[in-house]
Amino acid sequence: MYNIALFGPPGAGKGTQSLKLIEKYNLAYISTGNILREEIAEGSALGLKAKSVIETGGLVSDEIIVQIIEKKIKTNTEVNGFLFDGFPRTVVQAYILEGLLLKLNTSLNCMVSLEVPQDILMDRMLERSKKENRIDDTTDVIQNRLKEYKNKTVPVAEFYKEKGICYTCDGVGNVDEIFERITNVVEQSLTKTWLNVVLFGPPGSGKGTQGKLLADKYDLVYISTGSLLRKEIDKGTEMGKAAKEYVEKGDIVPDEFAIKLIEKQIQTHPNAKGFFFKGFPRTIVQAYILDGLLRKLNSSVSCVFNLDVPTLESIKRLSARSKTEKSRYYDMDTDVIIRRLEMFQARTTPVLDYYEKQKNIYNIDGIGSEEKVLERLTKKLELAFKHAR
After folding, report:
1. What share of the chain is helix, strand, coil (3-state, %, to 5)?
2. In angstroms, rounded to a whole number, what is the distance separating the alpha carbons of residues 249 and 336?
3. Domains of the chain with CATH codes
4. Which H helix or E strand runs over 182?
5. pLDDT of the chain along its 389 residues, tens only?
6. Are 228 and 318 in contact (CB under 8 A)?
7. Which among 149, 150, 166 is positioned nearest to 158, based on CA atoms?
8. d(CA 29, CA 22)
9. Interacting residues of 9 by C-beta distance below 8 A, sequence separation 6+
10. Which residues pair with 224 in a beta bridge?
11. Which of 116, 217, 239, 357 places its Cα 20 to 30 Å from the Cα of 47?
12. What is the phi/psi pair of residue 269, to 5°?
């Protein structure tokens, strides 16, 4: 999901440019003024609350606004993302939006700030007031609105500059010229957006084989906590020694091991286009950990895939692998194989439910030739990437 905030003072042309952006990128338009009017017109519970406040001359609270925005996001599931016009207007609202998007497992990817000199803004707004017969839009009123924007909204741009996602754009020129500049900025920010994939499946489902093929195909950094742990074990490091007893029993190693390994991989690939996670997260706690790790880097999980393979087929595959050079020491013991499959069902299946609720999971039939399964995964991955970007 790709989310944009379009900023600019009154008269900068945000409304006009917003319409063009939502059409080009298939975004849902979120303007607090518009959605407030929609809720009031519908006579919804939130609309009635807002109406009672407005009729008494008050300002609609952030609490009501954020509930209306959340409703708008949750009811627009066929879009590639959201365009926020005029929100957040304050630093407090910026924090509110961060928390709301975190709750919805997404984030603001790009803030575009339209820069227009004050004299041009004054001319535009005075001309607009004549055309639309806005008798209240006098020079003094417009100057006060611009002053209010500078005092309250400009600090929001600083908030996002610190996050590295704020881009300024020259807002002077004709509509098409300005739109081209904005799209150039958006495309630039898109190249900085990581694509992060999680691949699930029971032991023996072919995650390792398919994960490496897909990571190579899409130039993503492949992260297999199992492979990284085995390297630590083979090297005889302190972590390897501590992890060995867990791995040999088919148990899940302590979470701090995985965190250290993943952070190290991310840090050693600063120019990565994204990451392909195989075998992690395996528990709900680890799902939260991965969200936290990526959120810390202003990113998130783009999509999740689950290779659907029946238990009996998994046992057959693991038993067959034990007789090849690709065998693992935990393939040799049927009891350990069954224990690993039971662990997957007990601890990892709830993680699939977690991602199911976020509507970014794809279930893939894992039965068939390596080429056929890869074809199925590629087809869905292309779709998921298009949606993510």
Report:
1. 60, 15, 30
2. 6
3. 4-190 (3.40.50.300), 195-388 (3.40.50.300)
4. helix 175-190
5. 789 999 988 889 898 999 999 999 889 999 888 888 888 888 988 888 888 877 776 678 888 888 888 888 888 877 888 999 988 988 999 999 988 888 877 888 889 999 999 899 888 888 888 887 766 678 888 888 888 888 888 889 889 988 888 999 999 999 999 999 999 988 877 766 778 999 998 888 889 899 999 999 989 999 998 888 889 998 999 888 888 888 777 677 888 888 888 888 888 887 788 899 998 898 899 999 998 888 777 778 888 999 999 988 888 888 878 777 776 666 677 777 788 888 888 888 889 988 888 777 899 999 999 999 999 999 988 877 766 65
6. no
7. 166
8. 7
9. 114, 116, 121, 146, 149, 150, 153
10. 278
11. 357
12. -130, 65
| Residue for token pair 């979120």 | 30
| Residue indicated by tokens 């009017």 | 37
Whole-model pTM? 0.59
With H, G, I as helix, E, B as strand and everything else as coil, classify residue 48: helix
* Single-letter amino acid, residue 11: G
Cβ atoms of 112 and 186 closer than 8 Å = yes
CA distances from 248 to 62, 241, 245 (A): 53, 11, 5
Question: Burial level of 340, CB count in 10 A (0-12/13-18/19+)?
Answer: buried
- Please give the distance of CA 71 from its chain centroid, rounded to a whole number: 18
